[in-house]
Amino acid sequence: MWTRTRGIALALVLLLAAAVATAAVRSGEKHGELDPRSADKYGSRAVAALLAERGVDTRVVTTAAEARAATGADTTLLVAVPDLLTAHQQSRLQAAGAESGGRTVLVAPSSASVAELAPGVTADPGTSTETTLTPDCSLPAARSAGTADTGGERYNTASSEADSCYPSDGVPTLLRLPTATGDGDTVIVGAPDILLNDRLDKQGNASLALQLLGTRPHLVWYLPSLSDESAASGAQNDRSFFDLIPKGWLWGTLQLFVAAALAALWRARRLGRLVPERLPVAIRASETAEGRARLYRKANARDRAANALRISTRTKLAPLIGVPVSQAHTPETFLPALARRLPTPGQDLHALLFGPPPTTDAALIALADHLDALEREVRNS
Question: 92, 103, 182, 335: which has the fewest C-beta neighbours closer than 10 Å?
Answer without folding.
Answer: 182
